[in-house]
Amino acid sequence: MNIVDDMLRQLYQQRASNPNTLGILMMEKRRRVSPETDNFDYILLVIVQDASDKWAVEHYRMNDKHVAVHIVDKELLTRWIRTSRYRRASEWMINGKVLFDRNEYVKDIKERLRVFPMDTRKLRLAIEFSKITRSYSEAKNLYETGDYLDAYSAVVQSLHYLGRIAVIEKGFFPEVVVWSQLRRIDSEVYKLYEELLRNTEDLKKRVELMLLAIDFALNERREVCSQHLIEIMSERKEPWLFAELKTDKRTEPYMYDLISMLEYLIEKNVIEVVEEATDHNGILARKYLVTE
Q: I need a surface site. Which of 11, 44, 162, 232 has the fewest CB within 10 A?
């Protein structure tokens, strides 16, 4: 065992002795540029319970190596994994080396990540779908106003969300490096990305072609990606106020892009707008209902 290994062992063994520690994983930097470890040489992920600080981060230097220790409460870690709020955590859980596992807690999480439960998959699809409807709408608007460079940037962002959707559809958690996954599991979406980068036509034409391709891809995935929201809205016959949808705990992970998803689904006649009278003369309240 070299001196760095010995130092690392001191760090994690001290935490493993704490009864509130449920598991410890390690990610090691494999390449010169390592986004999955934030360019640290080592990441230690320490999962704890009943923590007053839900997420603490400590940085260390060991000889010429740099180490980041993330101490995360189990409930926060679960939210990160379910909602993609902090994607690095999923990467660490999937690919990290298990150093300590109390009562097979880490093993159980890894198994859930491998299986990717349907309820989590629906939520993750809704999150990515809400993001792509916003970026796609922005790309169209920028194209129509002649801002082709900005439209190109929005198209690239849309393709990234589309890539994540394709990975989730195949039953995998999208890792930090999505395109290397797509190359293996969904060549159709990967070819869209390649086409955008390699196409030698002028910028306006490239953006125009990608907007058409993204629109087609969204139409194909509309039903499965909107299922999470549609199931919530279908729980009652009465139309929903936007405020009611936005404050529902189940839509919280995509509340900031919820309006973009709604507007897209209205355009596609999946959701209809219902206008109701208010106490104010000439002012109608706008509500939303799933189209029968």
A: 232
Which amino acid does the sequence have at 172?
Answer: F
> How buried is 102 (Cβ within 10 angstroms: 0-12 exposed, 13-18 middle, 19+ buried)?
middle
Reference 232, options 84, 123, 85; nearest CA is 123
Given a contact cutoff of 8 angstroms between Cβ atoms, the answer to whether 192 and 212 are in contact is no
How far apart are the C-alpha atoms of 110 and 116, rounded to whole Å? 10
- pLDDT tens, the chain, 292 aa long: 466 678 788 888 888 989 999 999 999 988 777 778 888 999 999 999 988 899 999 999 888 889 999 999 999 999 998 887 888 888 899 889 999 999 999 999 988 888 888 898 999 999 999 999 999 999 999 999 999 999 999 999 999 999 999 989 888 887 655 777 777 777 788 888 888 877 778 899 999 999 999 999 999 999 999 999 999 999 999 999 999 999 999 999 999 999 999 999 999 999 999 998 888 888 999 999 999 7
Q: Please name the residue that has the structure tokens 């060991």.
A: 62
Q: Is the separation of the CB atoms in 132 and 158 below 8 Å?
A: yes
Is the overall model pTM greater than 0.90, yes or no? Answer: no
DSSP 159-212: HHHHHHHHHHHTT----S-HHHHHHHH-HHHHHHHHHHHH--S-HHHHHHHHHH
Structure tokens at 129: 């779908």
Q: Furthest-apart CA pair in the chain: how many Å?
A: 79
* DSSP calls for 76-118: HHHHHHHHTSSHHHHHHHHHPEEEEEGGGHHHHHHHHHHH--H
Residues ≥6 apart with Cβ < 8 Å to 105: 22, 23, 47, 74
Neighbours of 197 (CB within 10 A): 10
